[in-house]
Amino acid sequence: MKKLIESIKNVFAIEDLRTRILNTLFFIAIYRLGSFVVLPGIDPTRLKTGASGVLGILDTLLGGAFSHASIFALGIMPYISASIVLQLLTIAVPYFQKLQKEGESGRNKISQYTRILTIPIVAAQSVGFIATINAEAIMNPGVFFTVSTALIVTAGTLFCMWLGEKITDKGIGNGISMLIMIGIVSRLPGALIGEATARSMRGSLIFLIEMAVLFVVVMAVIILTQAVRQIPVQYAKQVGGAASLSSQRQYIPMKVNAAGVMPIIFAQSLMFVPAIAASAWNKDSEAATMIGTWFQPNHAVYNVVFGLLIVVFTYFYTAISVNPNQIADDLKRSGGFIPGVKPGRDTSEFIDEVLTRITLPGAVALAIIAILPAIATVAGVTGPFAQFYGGTSLIIMVGVVLDTMNQVKSYLLMRQYDSMMKTGKTRGRSQNISMAS
């Protein structure tokens, strides 16, 4: 406890870090406040108490803004969809491939295209969102309500996008991911209280077992997120004039889960399609009813298809994010080589083989974590609390928390180096020089 208090003091002792933390909290407070501002023309007392099925998963990611019919009803999710489209375009379209290789300027152009693409996506999704609102809650339905609501929801998403960029620039960083994580975490206290209340009637032992299992799952997600396969790299001895540098051994860290949460997001986006199509189809149709039943989060068909898609997308996203040929070329130019492997093509094939082997267990583990909420629901855990046993929610939370901790540590490390330059070694060296003279 004493070390924790000391660490908090060190964090707030750094002026720049303290300012960034306060800015982040300020932007998050604005985001959460907007999540409770109901759209004009809607009676909040007649809204549905909560979304279910695939829309329930979306509502969890948005912190309840979807079911509250707020001005941030779609949150940052259309921007995520636009980012996915742009990432796919960097594979298929040569122009975007060229932009990706141009460094900072190319990334800025891709970000600008992503912002522009977000507008038509959120405009289209806002019309679908209006269709999900309870008809009794709309006080004056009609064309004017549809157009005005679509404009407000679009403006709300653009404002959320602006908040995310401000958190990245003026705050701790990872603004877009931070907003999603805050939305997820905001549902945790209510889900925890609801589960504790439900279990209090049967006994507290079951609730304690559930918390222990949740702890184990969180630890497993952390291990999966941090696990790496280190490939040894040897750098040849370099001789230049009188100076001589001995050979050095370093490592290339290949992450077991190099794709992160993106395969789940890709797969989740596709799994929304059958359920939404079935709801828009003729509801009296037997085929629509069957599809709508199969593609619900707790159905076996949904989870089998969902798991297979995650495995496929894990390999796909790893292939586009990690380039063995480029790694081999960079090693060759810098004078490095993998012991026992020839530079060039053999090195590329070796890295590709290692990447293929470690991606399989990572993909399977990611798929298992993604379907754990359905397993928890079958085991008797309440729906809201079961969402925290895995899936997108848990992986996003763990990833964002770990990234934030790493950024805070980098600030603390920088402060430590600054203090060493101002005191200690620098002063001692000057004293030794003065004594010698």
Structural summary, described in words:
It is found in: Cell membrane; Membrane. It comes from Hymenobacter actinosclerus. It is a multi-pass membrane protein. This is Protein translocase subunit SecY. Keywords: Cell membrane, Membrane, Protein transport, Translocation, Transmembrane, Transmembrane helix, Transport. By secondary structure, this protein is mainly alpha-helical. The protein has two domains: 1-186, Preprotein translocase SecY subunit (Orthogonal Bundle), CATH 1.10.3370.10; 191-416, SecY subunit domain (Preprotein translocase SecY subunit). Helices cover 71% and strands 5% of the residues. The protein contains 18 helices and five strands. It has helices at residues 2-13, 15-34, 53-61, 77-92, 94-100, 104-132, 143-170, 175-186, 188-200, 204-226, 262-280, 286-294, 300-321, 324-333, 345-378, 383-386, 391-422, 425-436, and strands spanning 228-235, 238-240, 243-245, 248-255, 336-337. It has a three-stranded antiparallel beta sheet. Strands 2-3 form a two-stranded antiparallel sheet. Strand 2 (238-240) and strand 3 (243-245) form a beta hairpin. Helix 8 (175-186) packs across helix 17 and helix 13 runs antiparallel to helix 15. The protein is globular. The model is unreliable at 424-437 (pLDDT under 50).
